[in-house]
Amino acid sequence: MRNTPGSPARPPRIPPLTPVCVPARSARAGWSVNSPSAPPTTGDGDLGQDRAHTARVHNYLLGGWDNYLVDRAAGEAVRAVFPSIALTALAGQTYAHRVTRHLIHQGVRQIVEVGVGLPVQPFLHETAQAAASGTRVLYVDNDWLSLAYADCSLTGEHGGFSDCVEADVCDPEALLAAVEQHGLIDLGRPVALFMHAVLDLIPDEQDPHGIVVRLLRGLPPGSCISLTHSAADLAPHAWDAAAKAYQQHGIRIHPRPREQVTRFFNVLDPVGPQLTTAHRWHPESGRFPGPVTDQQVPLYAGTGRVP
User: Angle at which helices 69-81 and 236-248 pack, to 10 degrees?
Assistant: First the structure.
């Protein structure tokens, strides 16, 4: 609503200081308020307001409201050394929705997204189910805050075809077991596994390439994996400075060059373009703010299919 002459100024929107709801889901969602990762209930620091949170910083960079001052400070510290970081985050988000539509048009009807974060609308399950009603989407994360927001987004006409479950990507076998036990996704049929802005958070000593291989072993032929990853070789100075800025706020990221990102697809058949930058993967007119260079948006994206 516009302000009219003589009317009081519209107050700025105040971000919520807690999730819009704190779910107490049943065991079918994989966790409860009594689980070790469930939301704490007392103390001002329990929601992490005293330290930056990876998902909340990402939400801030995307223009969301689900973040605290400490997250905005971290985001601005990164933006100061990497001015196009918000555009890069947007490129990743728009890619996620494009690849969703692309895979659904190829017949995919099951999606498992690992690493939910705190997305801004439209939510992934909304895009998937608008493309093909009945598409099943399961969000997986080991962070209770991300699960809480994912849970809150699962409302409306698509109920019953989307849900969330707690699992840790660094334990692939347990993650696949949690997905199977949940029951929404049939691991006997092809699945699209999304790992967007996830592998950058896994250090080399935890073997991110091995994690992907172990996940792929549990998926049937015809399944796909889609990932995005910070491109260290396209903007080395920007990503190096960003990594240092993040680390000063307690967040570790691990940008990698093309050669290392390509290794994630070693045993897969390509789907769509070969590994490219996120804004160049099947671009759609009017869905990205003007022409940008790979150095401005240094984010690799790609999709492969299990043969």
Answer: 150
